[in-house]
Design brief:
By secondary structure, the protein is mainly α. The protein is built from five helices and three strands; from the N terminus they run ααββααβα. It has a three-stranded antiparallel beta sheet. Strand 1 and strand 2 form a beta hairpin. Helix 2 (about 15-35) packs parallel to helix 4 (about 95-120), helix 3 (about 70-90) runs antiparallel to helix 4 and helix 4 runs antiparallel to helix 5 (about 145-180).
Length: about 180
């Protein structure tokens, strides 16, 4: 592997560490400055609130009612295996440089939330609370954090890039097959 390809493999992992550090720092600040289950700051009326809540479940608090052993297996062990698999795919796959950046965001968000699951008895710290104006029956979107945002943006970006590449590959194949040789 030459220096350029090493850089293309490892440079996006900087984003992984930035996501972890940013997420953990913001969670630390929230826990230190806002009482649990309360609103610390509001912006633009009540559109955006910074709160301190703990989530023992997954997204949208799914699984929070499970027993502690089942919750540990479902919320910590399975995601650990999943993140490990993503790391293997990251290095053993033909992903583009841009795709690796998106994967790095997902990896960083996953690791940071796992740190909370393993080291915070209360659960994952969530603190971004956004008004949702009754869409889908929700007055407010479920509270989230920086790691959750990185996972969603990374996964969405990766999905869009893969769909676009597939579209352009098919379009290119179609255009190539439409060209017929000229007879003279």
């Amino acid at each position: 592997m030459n220096a350029k390809s090493k850089r293309e493999y490892f440079l996006p992992l900087i984003l992984t560490f930035i996501v972890i550090l940013t997420d953990q720092l913001t969670k630390w600040l929230v826990v230190r400055s806002i009482a649990p289950w309360s609103v610390g700051f509001t912006f633009w009326g009540d559109f955006l609130r910074i709160v301190c809540v703990y989530n023992t479940g997954a997204a949208f608090s799914l699984g929070s009612g499970l027993s502690s052993i089942m919750r540990f297996i479902v919320m910590a062990c399975i995601p650990t295996v999943f993140i490990g698999a993503i790391c293997v795919v990251y290095f053993r796959s033909d992903f583009t440089h841009v795709q690796r950046w998106f994967l790095s965001a997902v990896i960083g968000g996953g690791i940071s939330n796992l740190l909370d699951r393993f080291f915070r008895v209360e659960g994952v710290v969530d603190f971004i609370d956004v008004k949702f104006y009754g869409l889908f029956g929700l007055e407010r979107w479920p509270t989230f954090n920086i790691a959750d945002s990185a996972i969603v943006v990374g996964a969405a970006g990766l999905f869009i890039i893969i769909i676009m590449q597939e579209y352009y590959t098919k379009k290119k194949q179609k255009n190539t097959s439409d060209i017929e040789p000229h007879e003279e």
